[in-house]
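Mods, move this if it's the wrong board.
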Amino acid sequence: MEQSFNEHEAIRWTQENWYKTFPLSIAYMILIFGVQYFMKERRGYKLRTPLTLWSLGLAMFSAIGAHRTWKHMISILTTTGFKRSVCNQAFYVDPVCKFWVYLFSLSKVLELGDTVFIVLRKQKLIFLHWYHHILTLIYTWYCYKEMLSGGGWFITLNLTIHTIMYSYYTVRAMGFQLPRCLAMAITLSQILQMAIGIIVSTLLIFWMGDGVCLSTWTGISFSLLMYLSYLVLFCNFFSKTYLTNTPKLKGK
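Not the wrong board. Structure tokens:
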């Protein structure tokens, strides 16, 4: 499947359809807030088995994708260096990872389903959650259609962290209690991802004029603003969840 995958058709299809991420995002917001309103006077569903299978499926997908993309990334790092790994556009067409890069872009639509579980189970839906899902979907499709430099690091890191995150969700959905420090570590890894995203985007500003890094001001501006907003929101979430409320939680 990897070898026979036609990445040129996939990229062309994304170029022709990426604008659909906007109406899709609007439909997503209408759905989740509509369901949240519908559930307002109703008891939340447990959905333990569906949530376990959902999280397990995404964890397995992320693990395979991370393995394939890291294989390409390590090859670039060890043969041509860090700068080439950032500027690399072969990431989108490389036989090792091209199939998984495309599936990664499509998976951002599938991951919107995370929010459906939240509202059906009547858990707290925070701004960071749905904002992050929408903006990541739009940027991922834009990045893929333009084959932007830097995408290799963005995708590889995201798949790596999602492997850990969805594995954690799977175990929790099965009913097992896990140490609080694991949840803290996952959030810290997400904060680190956002910081690296800002660094990579900044490097592209300095490198895109030398003919090696093929990027655009639109793409760089998009990624910088996105990662900066994520960094602020994730830091705020970490502070409120694990620092500010720690004494209160211990007292419960």
